[in-house]
Amino acid sequence: MKKQSPKIINAKLASIWSKEKLRNIAPLRGGFAFKSEKFQNTGIPIVRISNIKFDGTVGGEFEYYSKIIPDEKFVLRGRSILLAMSGATTGKIAMLDSEEEYYQNQRVGYFQNTGEVDYEFISSVLQTKAFTNQLNAVLVAGAQPNISSKEIDSFEFCIPDSIDEQSAIGFLFRTLDDLLASYKDNLANYQSLKATMLSKMFPKAGQTVPEIRLDGFEDEWEKGTIGEFGSFYYGKSAPKWSVTDEATTPCVRYGELYTKFYTKIDKIYSYTSIPKENLKLSSGNEVLVPRVGENPLDFANCSWLSLKDVAIGEMISVYNTPNNPLFIAYYFNAKMRKEFAKRVEGGSVANLYYTYLENISISVPSIPEQQAIGAYFSNLDKIINSYQEKISQLETLKKKLLQDMFI
């Protein structure tokens, strides 16, 4: 069946698109039934269902096989498009791209490269709504997440007759995927660096010197309690009903500490209609600690409210301190999760009263070192946020192109 080509395409490459079944362009092949008792600690890694991840990558802990398998076709080399055919990730497509050899286990499907259609184009086709919709129809029909190669092979897609057009489309999406993978790797590296430095740039319990110091700082940190280094008060009511599009007073509500804000609040999302004289307004130096929540380990989601004249909701403990508030927010988030959790009380909706926090021991350095530490982690967060934004923008672009470039 012949159809017209999509509207977004290089005019020089434009060709008629034809409907084809997947079995004719990249038939799905199941893997080899390895016996688990013959797995080894060395040898050729085996790609199992557990190695196909929700993010579309192949990874995790591998089992190995040290013997030559009976059929060479179950050896994966180079670029291989895989499909989880059962288990938690059923229907998930993953790309294995490696110069090393891997073995293909049963229930891991491999889309065979027949050479009839550009293989990178096949990878793009399998990311379209056309594939997802047909896959969902199969998954809904079954009682357990389990699909067969026969079902997948029957899926139909429109493909351009021109191999040059296929290659151009495949190259475009591979370029996007490679760029996304690079950004995600960089994001993971910076997130790992931040987690490591948060664990080492603040003293452990009972110590007054952290494991890692920034250059130029050598003095011991001053010991004391949270209450000795500052004081608390509670925010005042800014109920949900008062938050409207017409309201004019900016406010921070406790739920936003979990969902919208990180260590520094420099943007406001909500506005309340409550008169200002009935509110607690910020001075720009407060550290906010959620007073209620569900998971005790989440109460150390603390933020420095850097903006003035922002109303602070009543379910928030407000900490004022002459110390650097950004440093304190990072400190609480990095080191106080377990300490705060010990003091949480209540059932499904738990409470953390600030009077329980005042006697917790902490150590603080000089103000210049606090400022330097706050700036260090703030810069890391800017880099992390930048990569997150780039990834989001690329994913949006890719989604739009997938919608526009396929029939």
Rg, alpha carbons: 28 Å
> What count of helical segments does DSSP give?
9
Shape, principal axes of CA atoms: elongated
The order of strands across the largest sheet is: 3-8-6-7-4-5
Biggest pleated-sheet summary: 6 strands, mixed
Supply the CATH class of the largest domain. Alpha Beta
CATH fold assignment of the largest domain: Adenine-n6-DNA-methyltransferase TaqI, Chain A, domain 2
Low-confidence stretches: none
Find the count of extended strands (DSSP E, 2+ residues).
Answer: 22
- For the record, what is the CATH homologous superfamily label of the largest domain? DNA methylase specificity domains
Features:
407 residues; alpha+beta; Adenine-n6-DNA-methyltransferase TaqI, Chain A, domain 2; Helix Hairpins; 3 domains; 6-stranded mixed beta sheet; 31% helix; 22% strand
In short:
This protein has 407 residues and is of the alpha+beta class. The chain is 31% helix and 22% strand.
